[in-house]
Amino acid sequence: MHIPPYYKRPGWQRFFVGVFLGGLFSYLIVMYMYGEMYEKLLENNVALQSEVKEIKKQHEALLKDKQDLNEENKKAITVEKIELEFKNAKQLRLENTLTLYQLEELIKEEIDQIIGQDIQIVSKNDELITSAIENKNYSVDDFSYSFKVVKLTIAPIVKIKLDASISN
Asked: What is the count of structural domains for the chain?
């Protein structure tokens, strides 16, 4: 049997070029969609890991505090959680949630020893907390950030409002 020479006819040539270009175009679209999906999954994974890490630290600190407490400390109120808010995140283009999570983790690692402490002790050392955050540069993705504490609220949930700036 003989296969007819379709590759010599212009109509078939256009058909084969169209099939090739359509396949290439669809491959590029699929790769773009896969990349977007993978990026969202990566951000979600980093957020969940950050949350799990924070909850484990709180759990360990609270268990340790519970074991070490005597009758006086059972009546005292302790720090349970740290919340950070970046005042100028949009101005520095920190909308990337991955960068925000990494910066939050670095700052929380710097001051996580206050979890489980008595609020009175923490309130006496508020300047120490402020200077611990302000006197350190935090590096994420080849950028170095420095922070200024705008507002520090000491309660069972310590809330810190930060003003970020890129340092050299």
From this structure: 1
